[in-house]
Structure formats: C-alpha cells, structure tokens
Amino acid sequence: MSCGCSHLQNVPAQRPPPGDTDKIQLRNNAAGLLYDLLGDEKNVGKVLIVKNAGKEVTVLIKLISATAAANEKELEQLAGNDPGLNLKAMSLPPGETAARAAIAKSKEYDLLFSSGANFEFNLLMTQAEAQNYGWHMAKVAAENSPRPQEAMTFKVISEAMKHLYEQTVAQMRSLPVQ
Questions:
Q1: Domain 18-173 belongs to what topology?
Q2: How far apart are CA 171 and CA 39, in angstroms?
Q3: Each residue of 56-72: pLDDT tens digit?
Q4: Which residues contact 31 (CB under 8 A, 6 or more apart)?
Q5: Structural contact between residues 131 and 168, judged by C-beta atoms closer than 8 angstroms
Q6: Segment among 16-30, 47-61, 64-78, 96-110 with least mean pLDDT
Q7: What is the model's pTM?
Q8: Which of 51, 68, 92, 123 satisfies CB 3.0 to 4.6 Å to 41 for a cystine?
C-alpha cells in the first residue's frame, strides 16, 4: 500500500537561501550571548549574601535575578522546540573574550571592596550595563528569528530587560550623592 509520498524521497533536501542562513547564524549568536548573560544574571542576587544594600536596591536585584532565571528557561524551551537554535553559539574573537574577562575582574573588585551608597551604585551600574546589553541582544535575536512565536518570545525578553534597565537607571538616580 502506498501513501502517495514516495516521490518525496527523491527530492534533495532544500537549504535555506544564503540570506536566511546568515540570519539564523546572527540569531544563534545573539541568542547564545543572551543565554550566557542570563546565566550570570540569575545569580546576581547572591552578592547580597555577603554585601548589604538598601531595601529598594535589594528588591530590584532580586527581581533581576528572578527574571533572568525565567528568561533562561524560556530560551531553553525555545531551543528544545527548534533544534536549529544553538544557545552555545557565542563566537567571540579572542580579544573580546580577554577584554570581557578583565572587565568582569574589575567589576568583581569594585563590588567586593565598596560599601554603602558606593556599593549600591557599583551594583546598579553593572546591572544597567547588563540589562542594556541583554535588551539589545534579545532584540537582534527577535529581528532574525524565522518563526513568529520565537520572535515574539525574544521581543518579550527584550522588553522585560529594557524595563529592568529603566528601573535600574531610575534607582541609580535616587542614590545619595557622595
């Protein structure tokens, strides 16, 4: 008995047009960088175990951590539904990788060896930078996603990170001047 589909066996697999391949690579790179950032951001609240911050800053940092954890799971679900979505495609040149490591060490030092309003400012500054970066990475991933639902997920993540960025900047502005 034939299902009428035997003619499909002889059709060569179609590759996406070159422009689509470039968009997929761009989406994967942005998604991989975003996923890596979210993995770090979900743990940012741990600094509050050893350092003290005011209530407003603490609440915001915990919100950033929780949002990052939820967004990280969203990306994992997307990747589970799309085998072409590679969350490990970070592809950074060696100079960028080295510069990022140096920046991370400087930020760690600034956070560990500051206190009071200086600590809060340093912590909020790191978060403003991270949220701004993530917001734009998610936007790039959305703009290069081939599936509408996937693009919408990236857009929602982008908007959430943009909102957290705005909250972080507002909180920085409310800190006492030193």
A1: Ferritin (1.20.1260)
A2: 23
A3: 999 999 999 999 999 99
A4: 75, 78, 85, 86, 87, 89, 137, 141, 154
A5: yes
A6: 16-30
A7: 0.86
A8: 68
Residue 97 near residue 36, CB atoms below 8 Å: no
- What's the burial of 48, exposed, middle or buried (CB within 10 Å: 0-12/13-18/19+)? middle
Helix axes 18-41, 55-81, angle to 10 degrees: 140
Residue labelled with tokens 């890596």: 36
Contact 34, 137 (CB under 8 A): yes
**Hey, where are the domains in the chain?**
18-173
Spatial contact of 27 and 145, defined as CB atoms under 8 Å apart = yes
| Lookup result for tokens 């590759």 | 15
150, two tokens: 């996937």
Q: Name the residue with tokens 């993530």.
A: 134
CB 16: neighbour CB atoms within 10 A? Answer: 12
Instruction: Report the chain's terminal Cα–Cα distance, integer Å.
Output: 83
Q: How many residues does the chain have?
A: 178
- Tokens (6 digits) for 1: 């008995």
Over residues 17-41, the pLDDT tens digits come to 445 889 999 999 999 999 999 999 9
Cβ pair 152, 133 in contact under 8 A? no
